Amino acid sequence: MGSRYQIGGWPARPNIFGNVAQVHALGQITLSYNHLESMLALIFQDCMPMEEDSANQLFHKLNNRDRIDLLVAIIRSSDFHSKAKDALNHLFRCYDICTENRNILLHATHDESYAGVLHISKKSSNNPAVVNRFKIPLADLRLVAEQMSVLSDYIFHLLFWLKIRGTLPKKYKSSLRMPPLKKIPYPKLRRVLRAVPEISTLPEKPPKPRKLTPYQPPATRQVGKRPPQSSQA
Fold first, then answer.
1. Which terminus of the chain has a lower count of CB atoms within 10 Å, N or C?
2. What pTM does this model have?
3. Closest CA relative to residue 200, chosen from 84, 86, 89, 40
4. Residue 135 and residue 116: Cα distance in Å, rounded?
5. How far apart are CA 48 and CA 52, in angstroms?
6. Do the beta carbons of residue 69 and residue 63 sit within 8 Å?
């Protein structure tokens, strides 16, 4: 039999770290982020001025901070249109937030779960003496995973735009314009663009993901001495 905290009697107590819905959301976050990271690797390979195999090896050697910093520098010096640079930089800012949310959730310690809220704590990466505590409702956990999926979809459409630009004559590569279809030398690409013309345009930027923020307990109100009463009536 199942319960809010077990499926088929598993996991056994005391190894329960949240209810079934919360653990399900955490698993979805893990897989969603892994997919998002693999999509970023494709952007990295496409933007790096090197062979694909070399770019792939470099991606796996770098940490996330170095990957993003390198991409930002490459995009800044590229000949992409300013709106394309803005679209890519928006991706990198969103990816940073998703990474931060994922790191909080996957490196935190479970404190308790009740009333549909997951209580976790995590030591600050800058100062391990500081412990940040989070109270995360189930809806917010699910939102973390959903926003990662939205960003993966955004990367997918950006990749289409980058790949198409790479096939165009030079004068169009730094532009948002498309040449007439008859001037595109690839029959398959012409057929795709006739069927789905919107893939040749930059996708709409998604909203920035919401950051998980530590719980701030209400400030303790200090009661001071009452001011002296006036002696005058």
1. C
2. 0.86
3. 84
4. 10
5. 8
6. no
